[in-house]
Amino acid sequence: MKSIALGLILVLFLSGCAGMPDIFGGLGGGNNINKTELASDLIVIQNLNVIPSPPINAKDTFSVSFEIKNQDDLKEVNNVRYSLFDSGICGEPTGSDKESLVGNAGSLAPLETDFYQWNFQAPDNNAINNLPTSCPIRFKVNYSYVAESQADVGVISKTRLEQLQRAGNTPSFTPSNAIGRGPIKIYFTFSSDMPVKSNNTISTFLNVIDKGTGLYGEIGNYTLFINFPEKFTLIDEQCGPKFNCAVGSMSDYCKKYSGQADLLEKILCDANKDGKIDSNDINALPKDTTGCINIEEIPIIKKSSPQIRCTVTVPDIEDEKTYYLSASLAYGYDVNGETSVDIKPILT
Ligand SMILES: [Ca+2]
Asked: What's the confidence (pLDDT) of residue 253?
């Protein structure tokens, strides 16, 4: 008798809690989320060298070389380019590199390393007033990549929920969010705890965050896709006025780019990463989805986007079911490299 009474008190206590506002995360926030996140670093600059070892004699030649490495062991990185933007009094690179302030390494396979070098001639005695000086060598490496993120939503029917509650069980579902490699991360959170009752409405919030050391100024238009299961109904302003949503929109969008290879957003559509979009790629895109794409730029301020909110009604189902949401964002990213080369006058 005693244990039954205790059980009853526990059930009352738990059901009482479920309806209370969450003091840690706002009103009934579904803050319980199982996050798994891959590393932020992707393209790194390594072995940055000046040869010969500085100080360099006035008017002598020297080289600045470095390697870049694709740290991802699974995916290639596209459109890798180098550009020198400051070399101070040491001027433009000499010789064969004179015209190539901008170099193009194309694509880097998983874990591939590429070597790059600029040759310079140090200024002469006159140019440095016979005094020791130094040249900053500042450059950037730019590349294109796709950020990916997937989250799940648990849905339960009213009948199943009542069944469980009658048996003294409280259904619980902790959504997971798997966040892919690279400096730009997309995080999902939800407005309420799960599982969601069938036919009910839930908001999902997306935040795009730059966790790298480089520069990413804004989310370019037509680069952020958010995919919902087709059975989800988007309500209100879908994902806000900056988005357009339609059933199957991603494959429709990608079809337009068949055969072309020069637009950043198109790397989203090139599923087998050969620089061309064909029917195989289109077939590999998520099917039976409702897709939303941003038709306007979205600013990144202090390394974060504003919160993007999409409100959906989940389908009417029989029992319990898990659905998957995903987002992908094609972006260009700059990684900076810098060194300083000491120059000394020569005795004449
Ligand atoms: Ca392809």
From this structure: 76
